[in-house]
Amino acid sequence: MSARKLAMHAFRGLILAFFGLVTAHILFDFGYPRWWNFLPLVLAYVLITVVNRSGGGTPDDKRVIREPVEVAPPVTGRWSALNSPADRTPSHGIHAYGQTFAIDIIAEPEPGARPGFRALWPLARRATAFPAFSAPILAVADATVVRAHDRQRDHLSRTSWPALLYLMLVEGSVRELFGVHRIFGNHVVLDLGNGTYATYAHLKRGSLTVREGDQVRTGELLARCGNSGNSSEPHLHFQLMDGPDPDTARGVPFRWHGIGVPRNREIFEAPAAAASHT
After folding, report:
1. Three-state SS sequence of 129-191
2. pTM
3. CB 106 within 8 A of CB 82
4. For the domain bounded by 69-274, which CATH number is listed?
5. d(CA 98, CA 4)
6. 174-184 pLDDT, tens digit each
7. Strand residues in the chain grouped as ranges (E)
8. Which residue in 23, 97, 130, 199 has a CA-CA distance of 20 to 30 Å to 190?
9. Domain-by-domain residue ranges, the chain?
10. Reduced to 3 states, what is the DSSP secondary structure of residue 22?
11. Quick count: other Cβ atoms within 10 Å of Cβ 276?
């Protein structure tokens, strides 16, 4: 078992120990101070912070940065980038789950088409209010499907300060407790060959058109964009990795044909000619 998986098991055990101690202290009158109950919680987040920053390897591991792998874009039409590796790495602040070079993209079919962030109201919006929702998600290369998960619901947006704080402080912590499936939500992993794997996360429930073991061609429809998992609004989270298991894989840099790697807030156009998803 990898160091990352061992650390995640320890993290979840410490979280459960925290809840157990708090519950027991409420039901029974223990003699030690209540703040001791929080020691497992503190240890859990120290552990996960160290693992997330290091990528889960041992101190002797050396991160090997590969040359960018050029693939087709996973969408068509007008989109913009968030949390781009063109601006910083790790792009999402952590190396965990193979996210070192991950990117988030949101559909921007025209200016003003996407609802903006609001301080207080509305607290949340339905996923259907966002143009990215149900947009086709495409294979970036000829590949084999090695993971395909499609059972999680598409939740409301987290596009106000109260909803975003709930996502970061409560929902995100609970999802971390249950692992990568709950963080990525509905997702697909493709084996592109040569030790490279593509991950598509936050897909729409019930939209997957592929199963594990399927062979796909570049531009083939895989699923529809959704808002499942640890997501604030409908968008696609895309990344390349050096293994099929996000718990142990390391990120691999990418470039999209004709686009490169868009920077944060950069609008880009992915041509329909690059895909064949009829």
Report:
1. HCCCCCCEEECCCCEEEEEEECCCCCCCCCCEHHHHHHHHHHHHHHHHHHCHHHHHCEEEEEE
2. 0.83
3. yes
4. 2.70.70.10
5. 11
6. 787 777 888 99
7. 69-71, 77-82, 103-107, 136-138, 143-149, 186-193, 196-203, 215-216, 221-224, 236-241, 251-252, 254-256, 267-270
8. 130
9. 3-54, 69-274
10. helix
11. 13
